[in-house]
Amino acid sequence: MKLLSVIVPCYNEEENVVDFYNEFIKNEPFLNKREMDFEIIYINDGSKDNTIAEIKKLHERDERVHMVSFSRNFGKEAGLYAGLEHAKGDYVVAMDVDLQDPPSLLPEMFSYIDKGYDSVATRRVTRKGEPPIRSFFARCFYKLMNVISKTEIVDGARDYRLMTRQMVDAILSMKEYNRFTKGIYGWVGFETYWLEYENIERVKGETKWSFWKLLLYSIEGIMAFSTVPLSIAAVVGLLFCVIAFAAMIFIVVRAMIWGDPVAGWPSTACIITLVAGVQLFCIGIIGQYLAKTYMEVKDRPIYIVKEKF
Ligand code: UDP
Ligand code: MG
User: Fold this and answer.
1) Last residue of a domain, one of 210, 226, 242
2) What is the domain range of residue 175?
3) CA-closest residue to ligand 1 atom 23
4) In the listed set 226, 246, 267, which residue is the last one of a domain according to the structure?
5) Could you tell me if 198 and 126 are in contact, meaning their C-beta atoms sit under 8 angstroms apart?
6) How many domains does the chain have?
């Protein structure tokens, strides 16, 4: 008997916990046919509502339901990592509890695993129901990311993914603190089949992502998988040297031919502020990397468990 582990991160999702279970359980005949058991691991990411109580109720009904509850909100990335660590399955799948990752895709996903793929990932081809500005920035982010990072990050990729034990172990071997799972999936490699589907809107509750949270997350992603921003300082520095050199020759030649009237302090002031700005910007980028390095060096745990069953 093989085992499928289902990882479900939850943050203030009391109204979705049971709905998810009911939806997932529709796969039971399919799993039985494959002679496969399953375990659902809800990760309670420091919810302030009745999420824990809902999960406990489910556990009493069905002992295949498990919970790992964090001591506070550690973020979805930490939740996914905790789920992978606690999963005992030969196959592991991560799904959102809001049913935006339809559990009904599971049979199709397994059909590709049977064809020899190590993982089946999902990608939404539309961004229907999302604010246009958010879609615009998301698209820009993926374009930029794929220019400056060697790791492939697919536009519209979701965290909804079915993986073999081998791939899960590979992901678990990446113990970095600043986790950007979309990049980690790409980094570990393996054969991945991309399943495409139309965006589905959240059934109940609200998205936990504000525009700013997403922006910070995208910066995190860029920094975790690319060091190109660090090179910006070098490139801009070089560029400014070339400009300065050309300007120097121009000024010397002009002074020799037409004399040197004392003027031009406004332009000097402008140049000084511009250069100072660029320097601070570059130091800022370096500082960001330094801060990330500092956090990594501290080697803090990715999450802290308060309760589990
Ligand atoms: N989530 C989490 N911790 C957080 C934020 C979100 O575990 O700090 C979970 C949330 O409960 C949901 C999933 O991550 O199951 C995706 O969150 P959401 O639906 O808010 O994001 P969106 O689908 O809008 O990208
Ligand atoms: Mg969602």
Assistant:
1) 226
2) 2-226
3) 207
4) 226
5) yes
6) 2
Q: Are residues 35 and 172 in the same domain?
A: yes
What is the number of the ligand closest to the CA of 10?
A: 1
- Please list the pLDDT of the chain residue by residue as tens digits (309 residues): 889 999 999 998 888 888 899 988 888 888 888 888 999 999 999 899 888 888 988 898 888 899 999 999 988 889 999 999 999 989 999 999 988 888 888 888 889 989 989 999 888 877 777 778 888 888 888 888 888 877 777 777 888 899 999 999 999 998 888 888 888 888 888 889 988 887 777 777 777 778 888 888 888 888 888 888 888 888 888 888 888 888 888 888 888 888 766 677 777 877 888 888 888 888 888 888 888 888 888 888 989 999 888
| Ligand nearest to the Cα of 130, by number | 1
- Which residue's CA is minimally distant from atom 19 of ligand 1? 207
Q: State pTM to two decimals.
A: 0.81
279 lies in some domain:
yes
In degrees, to the nearest 5, what angle opens at C-alpha 149 toward C-alphas 285 and 9?
90
Euclidean distance between CA atoms 26 and 203, whole angstroms: 17
CA angle 278, 279, 285 (to 5 degrees): 90
97 lines ligand 1 (CB under 6 A): yes
Strands 91-94 and 65-70: unpaired
- Please check whether residue 269 lies inside any domain of the structure: yes
CA-based nearest residue to 94, from 34, 168, 2: 168
Beta strand 36-44 with 2-10 is parallel
Task: Find out whether the beta carbon of 45 lies less than 6 Å from any atom of ligand 1.
Answer: yes
> Do 169 and 211 reside in the same domain of the chain?
yes
